[in-house]
Write a structure and sequence with these properties.
Strand content of chain A: 15-25%
Oligomer: homotrimer
CATH class of chain A: Alpha Beta
Shape of chain A: globular
Distance between the termini of chain A: 29 Å
CATH topology of chain A: UDP-N-acetylmuramoyl-L-alanine:D-glutamate ligase
Order of helices and strands of chain A: EHEHEHEHEHEHHEEEHHH
Helix content of chain A: 40-55%
Number of helices of chain A: 10
Strand order of the largest sheet of chain A: 1-9-8-7-6-5-4-2-3
Chain lengths: 260, 260, 260
């Protein structure tokens, strides 16, 4: 059975308190569509982001940062070797890192192979939608970057993926599930318009990295990232359309106060 | 003589109804300045976008998507061969595709040659400002990515370009003209601040691709994209400055209801 | 002693009047996180931006534009040779150009070497935070792209950097200092949330380039860019959170009227 986790829980607030205290340097390799929103979301919660593969950044920043996230669509700006360098550097330096296999299983074998080549570097967490994670675990994929499967259906598969990879695995949907293979956390709520903001899912990957930087419990930190993401979206619900929803989502992230 | 087309026309609304029904997967190679706005505009109207040249995406996604758009400034992230692969893949798979020759004729011969190399793959539609299209048809260009010519002056040239390429050609300006060489549609209105939002023109190219995905009349679909773009801009007119205008433009796109 | 410069000064307004009159073509090599905000800021004040290294743009546009800015993190999309080509082309064509050594000294030797390789092409202005400029002048660096030093502490070092490079050097902080080595201008005010908007500092580099395009006094133009940046931020102070602050900042830039 899944335990529900939400912004109402002190454990979630404690994770955000730790983040705001340590102001971790979080390094990301991501795609240029999502990069701006992800960086602004990290700044909004108090992390210090740097993004991109400028010369020796993938080795230096991945090892020197407090956490790393790799969004597979970073392959639109860098080769697989660059992503491998960053993943290896974080792994060898003992830094937590997040893998977001966006669009995995959507019909691009070379892309999928490049994502798989990162798994030996032991991501601390893997996040995606149901289609992507089912495909990563060996099933069928979705349509482009959109999911065609449900997070509920994916849960047993996602638990198996956590066991085989040793990662916390999180699947997004109307209900998000976060699992280490045994324990399952669930976050509800949020706002359906998150799926109409490009890079919103990618940004959740960045937030997970920031929460992993200084946690004692990776499962709890990944859960906290999801709860924070959902409460900010709920508080942005007043927005008129999808454009102002994205702006309000950042506003609410920046205003989240763990003491209130 | 040009026929006026606008959001008031049922034919325009029918094109948007088709888009919202089919939720087409629309793939784009574009520049990283415009990519975020274009993806959000596609999500706002109900399409499923993917952007970028990650490994085999240009061949796989261009053939597998319901429509493709190529913005020439994608050359800032990819080589001409990548754009050619995408154009060829869409052409051979019978997918509609849009060419946006942004900054064509602005003084970069290598860039212009790379854009020209895409024409043999028969774009379904070509869109640009007057300077770009006049240059593409063999005349003189503009200043950087800004136009120095008027859409009215360009119309006869644009009609010839449509005849020689077999594409629907659309020229943006205070009045937009859309032509297959014989018939001419005109859209009026919009908001001058569209020219002060980076990537707005590029985003029109993405919307054209989305409307072409499931249409029976490419001319009608390209016209509908322009009418949709203009009505959303008009409804965003309340915005205080150019920053909130871009946000409001996305809001209004997301709220467009073909039944009202 | 530093002279204070602000939006209240006619000299600042005169620089913006010149910009709005000439509508300079400003070309940039920057990172894909900041590119959208920078382009929109340039459009907001009346410049005509183009960004990115598409084929021969770095040589053609850098020589043909009225001003150039290079943000070091452009190295995430281009090699050092591309940045050198742009810097050399601007230098040889007598175009003013701005160097923003973002993240210099943050722990990436190859990156730092690539930035240094641009100095022989004589940037007209260099801007950064205190950590970056202290490191560029030969001291210790910061944490990722965030500064860990203060602009006040950096001032003597920054003055020396201006003397050795021949550039106007500007250091950002709660107080910004702009110096040619002898004279020092200071801008106060602004809004601390500028540091929570990704690409805001990068965007200041773009504004500096735009103001340098048609000035008689580079020192005055760089000071004016800082004063304009700060007054727009102050007028955006009503924003609820960091998301709407960025939007309001663009709004206020677009509404700045040198006559009022």
């Amino acid at each position: 059975m899944a335990s529900t986790i939400s912004w109402a829980d002190q454990a979630v607030r404690d994770e955000l308190i730790a983040l705001k205290h340590h102001q971790p340097f979080v390094y990301g390799l991501t795609n240029y569509i999502a990069a701006n929103l992800s960086a602004n979301a990290l700044l909004a919660v108090g992390a210090a982001p740097a993004i991109g593969a400028a010369l020796d950044w993938p080795s230096r920043f991945a090892a020197g940062a407090n956490a790393l996230w790799i969004n597979g669509a970073a392959l639109m700006s860098s080769g697989p070797d660059t992503l491998q360098t960053a993943a290896r550097s974080a792994h060898e330096a003992g830094r937590p890192w997040v893998l977001d296999p966006v669009a995995f299983g959507a019909g691009s074998p070379e892309y999928d192979a490049a994502i798989r080549s990162l798994l030996p570097f032991k991501p601390t967490a893997i996040r995606g939608n149901a289609s992507e994670l089912i495909a990563l675990a060996g099933g069928e994929g979705g349509k482009g970057v959109e999911t065609t499967a449900r997070s509920d259906d994916a849960l047993p598969i996602v638990q198996r993926l956590a066991k085989t990879t040793g990662a916390i695995v999180a699947v997004s949907g109307p209900v998000d599930y976060i699992t280490d293979g045994d324990h399952v956390l669930a976050t509800r709520g949020g706002d359906a318009r998150l799926t109409q903001v490009t890079g919103a899912g990618c940004t959740l990957g960045a937030l997970i990295a920031a929460l992993l930087a200084n946690t004692k419990s990776p499962l709890q930190a990944v859960g906290a990232a999801h709860a924070i993401y959902k409460v900010a979206a709920e508080r942005a619900a007043h927005a008129r359309g999808t454009g102002s929803f994205a702006v309000a989502f950042l506003d609410e992230l920046s205003l989240l106060d763990p003491a209130n």
